[in-house]
């Protein structure tokens, strides 16, 4: 009895001191609406018992009725949900909102650009930015054309009235292209099964990591390590790491050859024009030799892991989603096709200078990204108090910005926000909207480092595929439901059919 009383008194004193140390946080939190607050557990009940697909469906039903900004408590953690574009801009452009929440640590990429602490990220990002400069991107165009042409001819064997899942093929294709360009390593000779295993395993790995976020009882690492989920994660992580380890080994072999990379570079006609344009792996090798940057072997590998997965899965998903929507809207597909043959009438490679002329294609891809986003939400952890609109967000809070809601908000996109319409991205309509109403690759200083590369590679592949094939599908946009993950998942496979033009 005495022991229980002692424990009770200790817990009460601890709780009082805990509340007192966070007085400012509670004071500012009280000024923000919080419709889902419950004693002690906060807002956990909204996610309890729901898998990621059910949670998205539930939130989509609520989204037009929730206040913004909105307060929610995940146990002791304060979440501030913001979807007003001007306020989102205040957060993402603030130098005090570069840090990501501890939840990003669950993805085990805390040394790469994806999840690195703010100070580390600033130093590394500044030095790695040049590896995606226009000069470097221009060097990639011949390689991307070669890979896209080969991929397009591989599709010949799938031309029929039968549908097939194009995502698996695209996941392999984007992995090969990201390695060939940014890593200077050609994986096209590797076994197809190994390449496909990397992509499917990575999706399973990071989906499970995301699901852990929705289960607060698994947040403490000491508890998580006791579960079977942790053991499965370790197995998947070992498979995931094989690819970056292989690339590092192949890269060391190339460097050991002395001239292997130079032979590849000499095939690019822009090498003499841009002699200092270094690809990602070259720049990473260079900065890793600087002891002040503290990039150990694990950090080096995590940078490669981050770029490989980021460039592979996001591009593959966007391309697969776009081919699916092209099949859903044949009349719009023909507009994309006519633009392609007008800009590049011949069957040859796509020139770098022509890529900016595919305005309708870009509108089509953006509309696909709006309704089928790659990332469902973005989160930041302010290191100081930050003003967003008429509220002050305290240090210690986590800010969540639901792109899924923003991109379908009828206040921003009109009463037909759920309808597919590339004209939403006509220049005059874009001028009427806040620039942060559509941010598929995030925005501000911590946006996606490979965003321009992604646009380049996607446009080149779509040009090659669309001018050779007519795409069809039986899936309708209304059939598709989204599931939260690191990269948003569809409840349907990317089933399309091809017909030669």
Secondary-structure topology with pairs:
Layout: H1 2-21, H2 23-29, H3 52-62, E1 70-74, E2 77-81, H4 85-92, H5 118-128, H6 134-154, E3 164-165, H7 166-182, H8 192-213, H9 221-224, H10 228-257, H11 260-266, H12 280-288, H13 297-328, H14 330-343, H15 359-371, E4 378-380, E5 386-388, E6 391-393, E7 398-401, H16 403-406, H17 410-413, H18 427-432, H19 451-466, E8 469-472, E9 482-483, E10 489-490, E11 495-500
Parallel strand pairs: 2-7
Antiparallel strand pairs: 1-2, 3-11, 4-7, 5-6, 8-11, 9-10
Helix pairs in contact: 6-7, 6-19, 7-8, 7-13, 8-10, 10-13, 13-15, 13-19, 14-15
What does this structure look like?
The chain has a four-stranded mixed sheet with strand order 1-2-7-4, covered by helices on one side. The chain has a three-stranded antiparallel sheet with strand order 3-11-8. The model is unreliable at 259-272 (pLDDT under 50). The protein has helices at residues 2-21, 23-29, 52-62, 85-92, 118-128, 134-154, 166-182, 192-213, 221-224, 228-257, 260-266, 280-288, 297-328, 330-343, 359-371, 403-406, 410-413, 427-432, 451-466; strands at residues 70-74, 77-81, 164-165, 378-380, 386-388, 391-393, 398-401, 469-472, 482-483, 489-490, 495-500. It is built from 19 helices and eleven strands. Helix 13 (297-328) crosses helix 15 (359-371). The protein is globular and about 85 Å long. Helix content is 51%, strand content 8%. A hairpin with a 2-residue loop joins strand 5 (386-388) and strand 6 (391-393). With 501 residues, it is α+β, with helices and mostly antiparallel strands. It is a peripheral membrane protein. It holds the Pfam family p450.
């Amino acid at each position: 009895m005495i022991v229980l009383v002692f424990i009770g008194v200790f817990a009460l004193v601890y709780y009082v001191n805990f509340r007192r140390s966070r007085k400012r946080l509670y004071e500012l939190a009280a000024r923000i609406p919080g419709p889902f607050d419950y004693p002690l557990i906060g807002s956990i009940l909204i996610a309890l018992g729901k898998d990621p697909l059910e949670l998205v469906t539930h939130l989509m039903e609520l989204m037009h009725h929730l206040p913004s900004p909105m307060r929610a408590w995940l146990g002791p953690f304060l979440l501030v949900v913001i979807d007003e574009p001007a306020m989102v801009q205040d957060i993402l452009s603030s130098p005090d909102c570069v840090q990501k929440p501890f939840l990003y640590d669950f993805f085990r990429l805390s040394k790469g650009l994806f999840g690195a602490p703010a100070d580390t990220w600033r130093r590394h990002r500044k030095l790695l930015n040049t590896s995606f400069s226009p000069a470097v991107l221009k060097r990639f165009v011949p390689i991307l054309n070669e890979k896209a042409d080969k991929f397009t001819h591989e599709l010949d064997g799938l031309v029929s009235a039968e549908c097939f899942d194009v995502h698996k093929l695209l996941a392999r294709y984007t992995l090969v292209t990201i390695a060939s360009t940014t890593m200077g390593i050609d994986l096209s000779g590797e076994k197809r099964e190994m390449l496909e295993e990397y992509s499917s395993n990575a999706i399973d790995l990071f989906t499970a990591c995301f699901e852990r976020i929705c289960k607060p009882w698994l947040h403490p690492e000491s508890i998580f390590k006791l579960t079977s989920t942790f053991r499965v994660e370790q197995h998947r992580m070992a498979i995931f790491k094989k690819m970056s380890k292989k690339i590092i080994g192949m890269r060391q072999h190339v460097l050991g050859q002395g001239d292997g990379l130079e032979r590849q570079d000499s095939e690019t006609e822009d090498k003499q024009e841009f002699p200092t344009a270094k690809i990602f792996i070259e720049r990473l090798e260079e900065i890793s030799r600087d002891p002040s940057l503290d990039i150990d072997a694990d950090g080096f590998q995590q940078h490669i892991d981050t770029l490989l997965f980021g460039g592979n899965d996001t591009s593959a998903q966007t391309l697969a989603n776009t081919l699916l929507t092209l099949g859903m809207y044949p009349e719009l597909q023909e507009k994309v096709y006519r633009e392609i043959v007008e800009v590049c009438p011949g069957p040859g490679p796509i020139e770098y200078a022509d890529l900016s002329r595919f305005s309708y294609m870009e509108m089509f891809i953006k509309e696909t990204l709006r309704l089928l986003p790659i990332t469902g939400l973005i989160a930041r952890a302010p290191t100081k108090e930050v003003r967003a609109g008429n509220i002050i967000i305290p240090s210690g809070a986590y800010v969540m910005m639901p792109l899924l809601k923003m991109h379908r908000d009828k206040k921003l996109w009109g009463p037909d926000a759920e309808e597919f319409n590339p004209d939403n991205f006509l220049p005059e309509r874009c001028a009427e909207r806040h620039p942060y109403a559509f941010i598929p690759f995030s925005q501000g200083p911590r946006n996606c480092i490979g965003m321009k590369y992604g646009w380049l590679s996607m446009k080149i592949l779509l040009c090659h595929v669309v001018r050779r094939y007519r795409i069809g599908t039986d899936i309708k946009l209304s059939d598709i439901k989204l599931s939260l993950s690191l990269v948003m998942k569809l409840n349907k496979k990317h089933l399309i059919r091809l017909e030669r033009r």
